[in-house]
Amino acid sequence: MTEFFADIPKLAFQPDATDEFAFRHYNPDEVILGRRMEDHLRFAVCYWHSFAWPGGDPFGGQTFQRPWFGDTMDHARLKADTAFEMFRILGVPFFCFHDADVRPEGASFAETTRNLEEITEYFAAKMEAGGPKLLWGTANLFSNRRFMAGAATNPDPDIFAYAAATVKTCMDATHRLGGANYVLWGGREGYETLLNTDLRREMEQMGRFLSMVVDYKHKIGFKGTILVEPKPQEPTKHQYDYDVATCYGFLQRFGLEKEVKLNIEQGHAILAGHSFEHELALAASLGVLGSIDMNRNDYQCGWDTDHFPNNVPEVALAYYEVLRAGGFTTGGTNFDAKLRRQSLDAEDLILAHAGAMDVCARGLKAAAAMLEDGKLEAARSARYAGWDRPEAQAMLGSDLESIAADVLARGLAPQPVSARQERLENLVNRFV
Ligand code: XLS
Ligand code: NI
Ligand code: NI
């Protein structure tokens, strides 16, 4: 046991607990719509925000002082010990990491790779000893200054090469650990100014890069899903993976829409001017809903603040889309969320996650109840019932002239009907 969480007990489902250290709604074994709650939600803790982020903001530096902060392999192992201790206390089934979160950068690419391989084996032993599984691995292609002008989209082919080699090592690590997915978030794949940017080249480079990732997945027999994470801006002024619709167009352009799905983040959806449920519903309708990053932004701040989720009605509408799509397959709920920089204590880290897990559990239960009740889906089907008639379907294979002749022949004078929006909103309000 590490000292950091020494006094904190393992959390359990205790709906009437008076103590803070309990789940009031997250009950892993409760069966909802035929599936255990744990298997619906598939929670993952992210390594970067909880264990690698020092607490800085644009106006101030480190606020957290953690015994595992440092650049040696000993620090990396202490970090891993502490992280797995937290996974155990929370009882989460998954975790996620970038290479840079878990190993120190070496003096050369070879040494950096060896460090990652060593930590990968360290993780493997802990996972075999009953630790959580890996929801996804990923490469940090944005923090190091070499990536300041992007990774795949970099004007310098040597940086493209370095990024490609780095992704290979991260896919190897993810494969070794039996990861359920591999994520690519295009950290700096965008531009700061059009004045120095060749859009055509950059997007073609990015398409080739992603195709190579897919080829390598098949070559090594990785069975997980490749996921791209949309985000409209930050850190660059404009990111190429702007939102779900943009990503889908990009995947189609490179023939990858059957190979790659999306990891959709609540905060990124808001930054793109959408709601989270919009992005989820659109991805589901296009067949590319993969996984979610369940962290919200502060609505008054115009950036990706990565708060833990705390709004049950919002979360319920998100899980409603996930459930309508049939639930997660390889995906899950990753808390890509960080403490506020004044939340210094070990207890803060545990209770932030515990609270978020309870919010998601409440949201899931509400979403399942809405689906079981069936009135929303019945209203949706009724709205389109006209299209179930064979003549209506036949019209889609017809042409303008024939349709015009038919309108005349039938003396058609269609009457609008109510879409009943407020009544549907009232219905949702009964469940959340
Ligand atoms: C940043 C992203 C990042 C990805 C993983 O905004 O959300 O954390 O999830 O690289
Ligand atoms: Ni994310
Ligand atoms: Ni983000």
What does this structure look like?
The chain is of the alpha/beta class and 432 residues long. The protein folds into two domains: 31-373, Divalent-metal-dependent TIM barrel enzymes (TIM Barrel), CATH 3.20.20.150; 378-429, no CATH class. 46% of the residues lie in helices and 11% in strands. The protein is built from 16 helices and twelve strands. The protein has helices at 37-41, 47-52, 73-90, 99-102, 109-128, 157-176, 199-220, 244-253, 266-271, 276-286, 312-324, 346-373, 375-383, 390-395, 400-410, 421-429, and strands spanning 31-32, 35-36, 43-46, 94-98, 133-138, 181-185, 190-191, 225-229, 238-239, 260-265, 289-293, 333-335. It has an eight-stranded parallel barrel with strand order 3-4-5-6-8-10-11-12, surrounded by five helices. Strands 1-2 form a two-stranded antiparallel ribbon. A two-stranded antiparallel ribbon has the order 7-9. Strand 5, helix 6 (157-176) and strand 6 (181-185) form a beta-alpha-beta unit. Helix 5 (109-128) runs parallel beside helix 6 (157-176). The longest helix is centred in the last third of the chain and has 28 residues, at 346-373. The chain is globular. One nickel (II) ion (NI) is lined by residues 265, 267-268, 304, 306, 336.
